[in-house]
Amino acid sequence: MPHRSSSSSKRSLPRRLLALLVYAFYRNSARLAGWIGATGTTIVVRLSAFLLFCIGIQVMWNGAAELLGTLPLGTCRRQLNTAGPTAEHPTAEHRPGGCTLRRRPTTAAGSVQRTSG
Question: Which domain covers residue 86, as residue numbers?
Fold first, then answer.
């Protein structure tokens, strides 16, 4: 039997406590609903729905940010000088027709680097 380190048992304690609390609340949900009444139950249900909605928005926002971070950023503008990077935009690639394509820098693993500012 492998020996558990003290750090893994410290991390599992909050998980076990949370699981015990959830079990206790579900086990006594009828008693709790009677204690807080119809209005209290409505408030708890609406707050729970709002929190679930917020978590869903956060997941969607993170997914959209990750997806949009992989797409090339740029604009198509007609320019007279399409020879290459300029002093103003040294990382730009000028394409035929005057389209400027700029890509976000990526790490070695391929994920987009977060830039400040």
Answer: 72-117
Q: How many independent structural domains does the chain possess?
A: 1
Tell me if the pTM is above 0.90.
no
Is residue 99 assigned to a domain? yes
Handedness of CA 104, 108, 110, 114 (dihedral sign): negative
CB 73 within 8 A of CB 99: no
Per the domain annotation, does 18 fall within a domain?
no
- Three-state DSSP at 100 gives strand
Tell me the per-residue pLDDT of 44-69, one tens digit each, with 9 for 90 and over: 999 999 999 999 999 999 999 999 88
